Amino acid sequence: xxxxxxxxxxxxxxxxxxxxxxxxxxxxxxxxxxxxxxxxxxxxxxxxxxxxxxxxxxxxxxxxxxxxxxxxxxxxxxxxxxxxxxxxxxxxxxxxxxxxxxxxxxxxxxxxxxxxxxxxxxxxxxxxxxxxxxxxxxxxxxxxxxxxxxxxxxxxxxxxxxxxxxxxxxxxxxxxxxxxxx
Length: 182
What we know:
The protein is mainly alpha-helical. It has helices at about 20-30, 35, 40-60, 75-85, 90-125, 130-140, 140-165, 170-175; strands spanning about 5-10, 15. β1 and β2 (about 15) form a beta hairpin. The N and C termini lie far apart (about 85 Å).
């Protein structure tokens, strides 16, 4: 006699477990695997981090004061250089280097966005229009949007460095100056 086929009843005497009952216990055990594998500690810790971040946003944390800006939103290079113990020409060279970096990243993200957009169009063209086969193709669209928005953000940063002032996105879009990063 195998021991796992026997279960003590209320009186303490062994009772035979039916194959159906053993099967049901196996189904319950397999069904409990996701619950046992769920990372409760990590989820609660992530919730605490998000709560702290939201509380910080609600408190309206002050901006980084290491880079000085005037009331008219122009960069104050003299105050920034003094604050960091640098010369003004050193701050200007750092701004020029950052301007080149933002221009390069804007063009790279913009190009990658167009490449993925054309690939996305190609996938839409060759994919049969059924519910389950078109869903992954449509889920790919946000990645293209992300690349275009990142390119726009880099272009805006480049524009701010060119004009040496904190410009808004609307000012960047409606400028009569050169739009493309340089």
